[in-house]
Amino acid sequence: MSDLSSGYKKPKSVRIKEEDKELLLHCCDICGKEFRKKNHLTDHKRTHTGEKPFLCGVCGKCFGRKYGLNSHMRTHTGEKPYSCEFCSKSFSQNGHLKDHMRIHIGKKPFRCRLCSKTFMRKNCLKCHMVTHTGEKPHRCELCGKSYGVRANLTAHMKTHTGNRPFTCLTCKRSFITKSALNCHMSTHSGEKPFSCPTCGKSFREKTFMTVHMKTHTEEKPFLCPMCGKRFSQRRYLTKHKRGHTDDKPYTCEVCAKGFCQSCDLRSHMRTHTGEKPFPCLTCGKSFGKKSNLNIHMRTHTGERPFPCLTCGKCFRERTSLNRHMETQHP
């Protein structure tokens, strides 16, 4: 027995290093997607089952991941623990801070493989890809309208429910999306951080500046298939196409007047409510439409941007120029 025991070697136990454990992939048995960590697989599988076990104790909203609940809770507490080291702007989520940092460093890591246009965020690239494919897989079950991006469908659904959860603390006006509220807030602050490099005109949002830049390049990529007319913006094409079909999907519930665009309906509704959310910061006079405020501001600045090409006289409004042309240069 002693001879046998002396020649016997106990097998070594195999220990997997922690760094090697990270390389062991956990596979989803539904879609085949692989994850390095088992808890990531568990979170992922809830996207298939629809399970949302993490409940917000304040508003009752449910989440599939605990991280999602923690981030959501900051909308109630107002906590913004992630601060930008360049401009001190704070964010509720680290991912939002990372997106913001790309504005300072100019990094656009997500490139479209079809046109080579680059984007700061992956979801922006996904939204852009729809412009190439024309795909609109997200359909409203109430009216049948389709969208290329789920977030746009979510925002659209609120037009049916009337839910406008984002309220301006200054004028109490409510909005469907937070981005719409942020854009509106600049009407109170007057902030216009995006300047056109060609003419110096400033804008509240970068998208507004991008659209404006096409007035310099005369780029009109959106073609009407019915009459061949081209437009610089998709929304102008959409509005134009309704002129062919006489489609006015936005109806006033007070007087039943129809409109081609939702913004026209919102502006019209103020004639019933008397709301005037656009105040002049110089004299305090308020207006129901932003365009009327812009015209009014020219009485303070003296700006007359509409010149008569025949006699050189300038006007504050295009309608005044048109009236002048009819009476003085028929």
UniProtKB/TrEMBL annotation:
InterPro entries reported in the protein's UniProt record: Znf_C2H2_sf (IPR036236), Znf_C2H2_type (IPR013087)
Keywords assigned: DNA-binding, Metal-binding, Nucleus, Repeat, Transcription, Transcription regulation, Zinc, Zinc-finger
Residues in C2H2-type domain copies: 26-53, 54-81, 82-109, 110-137, 138-165, 166-193, 194-221, 222-249, 250-277, 278-305, 306-330
Protein origin, superkingdom: Eukaryota
SMART domains recorded: ZnF_C2H2
Compartments (UniProt record): Nucleus
Spans through the membrane: none
One GO biological process term: negative regulation of transcription by RNA polymerase II
Similarity annotation: Belongs to the krueppel C2H2-type zinc-finger protein family.
Name of the protein in its database record: C2H2-type domain-containing protein
Organism expressing this protein natively: Xiphophorus couchianus
